[in-house]
Amino acid sequence: MDETDDTLTPLHPNHVKVTRIVAFLCALPFVIGSIVLEAVQILPFGIFVIPVFLVAVFLVLRVPLRRYHARGYDMGEDRLRVVKGILFNSDTVVPFGRVQHIDVNQGPLQRAYGIATLTLHTAGSHNASVHLPGLGNEDALAMREDIRSHIKRELD
Question: For residues 93 and 75, what is the distance between their CA atoms, to the nearest angstrom?
Answer without folding.
Answer: 10
